[in-house]
Amino acid sequence: MADPILERYRQSIDNIDAALVFMLAERFKVTQAVGRYKADAALPPADPGREEAQIARLRALAEAAELDPEFSEKFLRFIIDEVIRHHERARGE
């Protein structure tokens, strides 16, 4: 028989994972629209200044939330790299 306390923890983790997936899906819907806009406006797929600012902002949020800022930066960098890849594809690169 499963441990009921452990099962409650796991259910919470499962709920959080589901929320993360849906939030990422929404984020990518918006960034794909940005990619189409950038392609139509002949803007570059990447914006290093914006990326730097977002990473600094996320690191500060992570620190405030007592989350490892290095982890948060790696996570955001992974997302940014994927977004840039989508933007490049929207431009036909």
UniProtKB/TrEMBL annotation:
Keywords: Isomerase. SUPFAM superfamilies: Chorismate mutase II (SSF48600). Its EC number is 5.4.99.5. The keyword Isomerase applies. PROSITE patterns: CHORISMATE_MUT_2. It comes from the Bacteria. Residues 1-91 form the Chorismate mutase domain. GO terms for molecular function: chorismate mutase activity. The keyword DNA-binding does not apply. InterPro entries: Chorismate_II_sf, Chorismate_mutase-related, CM_bact, CM_dom_sf, CM_II_prokaryot. GO terms for biological process: chorismate metabolic process; salicylic acid biosynthetic process. This is chorismate mutase. It comes from Sphingomonas guangdongensis. The lineage of its organism: Bacteria, Pseudomonadati, Pseudomonadota, Alphaproteobacteria, Sphingomonadales.
